[in-house]
Design goal:
Blueprint (H helix, E strand, L loop, with lengths): L6 E5 L4 E6 L10 H14 L7 E6 L10 H8 L4 H20 L4 E5 L2 E3 L1 H8 L2 E5 L3 E3 L14 H9 L1 H10 L3 E2 H6 L5 E3 L1 H16 L3 H13 L5 H16 L2 H11 L5 E4 L2 E4 L3
Helix pairs in contact: 1-3, 3-4, 5-6, 9-10
């Protein structure tokens, strides 16, 4: 059974696992221990057949304010180059594991998401933000480059190169309405509705074809470096594999019988939600 010490980890019968960063007094800032455990948990969730979607949220007023100044920043000043590189590789491992997780990951960003918190948000597949949310890749404001933890790879794919360049050079905060307009978030809700909306969306995905969703996430990640011809061939092979899966027949039979399909994962049947 997967467990966590530095944040809350809850599992629902719907197939949704919810990770809640739980250092509200520090705006859910990240410590060395949180980074490492988050990375391990995402790797573990990817191996748990009962988990079909993941929600990532924060407790209190913020989603995540990035690395903790007291726990991390102060410590980094005493490290040499090898020690600093060891730390930056640990932070990158978290983003790598979020992207490698073949379960859809939905971020519920109800408040501030800055620094590493903003990168964690864009590593998720879908972002649902509240109207109080703020995003900021604030690395330049502390004398660091905007390319951190994969931000320079992920952000242009979401908002385009021009927007990404502006955000990573300036570190400016982006309000929820502007984030929606530039495609940084998928939708905006009230603060109270943010987590319920993210959970409902994750439940919808969890009730769908888990094998096919995993393939979709894999292809979205893999095709980024392919030519069009390579992508078409890769998708032809991926779709043929999906056609061999029982969920393909289940969806066909359900359509003929005018009922919702019941998709099967290793953990048991899940009925699709509209």
């Amino acid at each position: 059974m997967i467990s966590a010490k530095t944040f809350r980890l809850e599992f629902a019968s719907t197939g949704v696992a919810t990770i809640t960063l739980s250092r509200p007094q520090r705006l859910n800032s990240l410590t060395f221990e949180v980074y490492e455990e988050l990375a391990r948990v995402f790797a573990s969730l990817d191996q748990d057949d009962a988990v079909r979607a993941v929600v990532l949220a924060g407790e209190g007023r913020g989603f995540c304010s990035g690395g903790d100044r007291d726990d991390i920043i102060r410590e980094l000043f005493s490290r040499d180059m090898q020690g600093l590189l060891a730390f930056t590789r640990v932070t990158g491992a978290l983003i790598r594991n979020i992207r490698a997780c073949r379960r859809p990951v939905v971020a519920a960003v109800h408040g501030v998401a800055v620094g590493a918190g903003a990168v964690i948000a864009i590593a998720c597949d879908v972002r649902i933000a509240s109207d109080a949310a703020r995003f900021g890749f604030v690395f330049p404001q502390v004398g660091l480059c905007g390319a951190d933890m994969g931000a320079a790879y992920l952000l242009p794919r979401i908002v385009g190169l021009g927007r990404a360049s502006e955000l990573l050079f300036t570190g400016d905060l982006v309000a929820a309405s502007d984030a929606l307009a530039m495609g940084l978030v998928n939708r905006v809700t009230s603060v109270d509705d943010c987590l319920p909306a993210a959970t409902a969306f994750a439940e919808r995905l969890a009730s769908g074809p888990a094998f096919a969703h995993a393939m979709t996430k894999q292809m979205l990640e893999s095709e980024h470096t392919m030519t069009l011809d390579q992508a078409i061939e890769a998708e032809a092979q991926a779709q043929a594999v999906c056609m061999m899966h029982p969920d393909f027949r289940a969806a066909h039979d359900a359509a003929k019988e005018k009922r919702a399909p019941v998709f099967r994962g290793a953990a048991g049947p899940f009925q699709a939600k509209p």
